[in-house]
Structure formats: C-alpha cells, structure tokens
Amino acid sequence: MAPLKIKKGSSKHSAYNLRSNFSDVQERHTLTVMVDNEAGVLARVIGLFSGRGYNIDSLTVAEVDHEGHLSRITIVTTGTPQVIEQIKAQLGRLVPVHDVHDLTVEGATVERELALMRVEGTGEKRVEALRLADIFRANVVDSTLDSFTFQITGTQEKVDAFADLMRPLGMTDIARTGVAALSRAS
Length: 186
Description:
Blueprint lengths: L26 E10 L4 H11 L4 E10 L4 E10 L1 H13 L3 E6 H4 L2 E12 L3 H12 L3 E5 L3 E8 L1 H11 L4 E6 L3 E4 L3
Antiparallel strand pairs: 1-3, 1-4, 2-3, 5-7, 5-8, 5-9, 6-7
GO molecular function: acetolactate synthase activity; acetolactate synthase regulator activity
EC number: 2.2.1.6
Pfam families: ACT_AHAS_ss, ALS_ss_C
C-alpha cells in the first residue's frame, strides 16, 4: 500500500484547517420568539443570552394574544452564523418557547423603532431643530419655551441619524423602544 502523499504547503488534509467551513463574520439578525406570557419567561430567555456571553442590541416584548396568553419577543443580536444558529437552537429548547423565527434569513421584513427626544434650546438652534424634525417627519409631542420633545419612528438607522443631528442642537434626553419587526406579506 502506497503512503498518502500530501504536497508541502497544502492544507487540504491539515488538522489545522478544520474551521475552514466556519465564518468569523459578525452578522446582525432579528429574531422573534413566541412565548407563554407568564412570570419568569423573559428572565429565562435573557439568561440564555447572558449565560453564554451573547449580546442583545435591542429587545422588545409585548403580549400579542390575550386569550392564548402569548407574548412576542423581538431580539436584535449580532454574531457569527454559527453563534446565531446556536442561539436559535437553544431558544427553541426552552420550555415556554413556542416558536423561533430568524426574520433576517426568512426574507423581507418591516422593522421600526420609536424614540422620544428632548431638545433644549432657543433662537436659531430651536428653529433648526424644528426644520430637521420636519425633514425626518418627527412630531412635536411636548413643547415649552425652552424645549421640544420629538417623537420619531423608523428604522434604527433613521432614528440614529436624527439623534446625531439633534445632539449639537441641545438634545438632553432620549428614550427608545427597540425594534419591532414583522415579515413582509407575500
């Protein structure tokens, strides 16, 4: 029997090349998880992330079926494809979880976030804040002689862009809801 010949420098049969099928590229994914609406369920889902060192970029939770006592958790997280698959598998094994969907891979989605921003200022800065709010279709939901509170809805990128423009104009406070997402209808 002839010995196996491996070209020098060839990694085809190298034990060090076992990870070649794995990607180190970080991807952003939006996951939806349908769970029982009962005490402790959110803590168990969040515990899965924190216990394994996974980060949550955005988290929203609300009851969506009052009679069925079901809540929908929308989680935006970042990780390698292998980490995302592991997260989905581990979520699916939790007892109160009924359904796990990765909206990022399932097709087109609609994602929106709501934010409230307080901008304090007078004179030209106040006028500029109103002008930019009009361009971004943000609404004034509260007003004093020294400040405005704006409400804006849109993608995370739109909310981020509006906040970046409001900071130099006197933004003092911001509250964000996190991402709410649905698959697009076919």
